[in-house]
Amino acid sequence: MNYPAGVKKTKCNMVQYSNRGMSLEHDLNETNEFYRISNRAIIYKKPTPITIVKVDYKSRIDAVIKEAYFKTPSTTDYNGIYKEKYLDFEAKETKNKTFFPLANIHSHQIEHLKKIREHGGIGFLIVRFSTLNLTYFLDSSKLVEFIETNTRKSIPLQYFEDYGYRIFDNYNPRLDYLAVVDIIYFGGK
Amino acid sequence: MNYPAGVKKTKCNMVQYSNRGMSLEHDLNETNEFYRISNRAIIYKKPTPITIVKVDYKSRIDAVIKEAYFKTPSTTDYNGIYKEKYLDFEAKETKNKTFFPLANIHSHQIEHLKKIREHGGIGFLIVRFSTLNLTYFLDSSKLVEFIETNTRKSIPLQYFEDYGYRIFDNYNPRLDYLAVVDIIYFGGK
Question: What's the CATH code, domain A21-47+73-185?
Fold first, then answer.
């Protein structure tokens, strides 16, 4: 594609030097693609769950969904396999600067992460404070511990600082969250 | 709900004594729900992948998808965790009575099952010959072996008989495919 020279340059700079404006989902999709290509892990985002009501079948290939609704997800958004272990997580962004509102995660998603842990899997939460451009990894054990020992409806940023791990922006992989999994679950290897 | 007596009875009989007419997907969803409730495994069907083009936002709750398209799935339909292992499978029905056409599975789904195996996970295929009411479990190793040693574009029923495991209809769980996983991966325990 041809862009006017100035536009192309701006676009390049944006991609190379700054992560601002890129969504967490976009960064995680790039990261997971990198992990798959380099054969480090097989992790995918699940499709958005919807209820389909009406479909126009002009042909088998050209079916158009004409009416559908978003469903509440029963599970988390991402799962897969890493170092022979089942891995499962939810990712959320907040514009809030001091805390992460728990209303952002459904209670059955938290129950799901608890179950995964019980069954010997790896479960965690990735939270981005987008206004501050800070991204944290919080293991499901620490998430559940917070919920079970607090009555408040939000997790302070400080809790992520104290019990979570900061994930720094990088070039490739974009957000190396498996480096944190290595520290917590595989003794830093 | 109130049904005329005769209709209710017919419905009851159908549910209790016969599986014919129930789709494989329906049976697997019931089975997975049973596994989850009994805490034996945490396995879900992934939502159907779609590309959303147009959404009407009357309110956040009442958003209606007005235009969307089905996408080719990158992975298999089902995954989860069983006995601390990552488990992943695809399920397909065919009306054919003598063979399973390989066109029913996308090549990248087969590649995905190969990768899962490489990474230490459990991968397999469940195929129902719906006209014969026969359901088989075929481990991904046997699926890949067939593809790599044959040029034909379909797997004969006999191959499932010889290298797969028949899964019998049951009451609860409906299709106890984890019993086969136990035989293959956990020494029958």
Answer: 3.40.1350.10
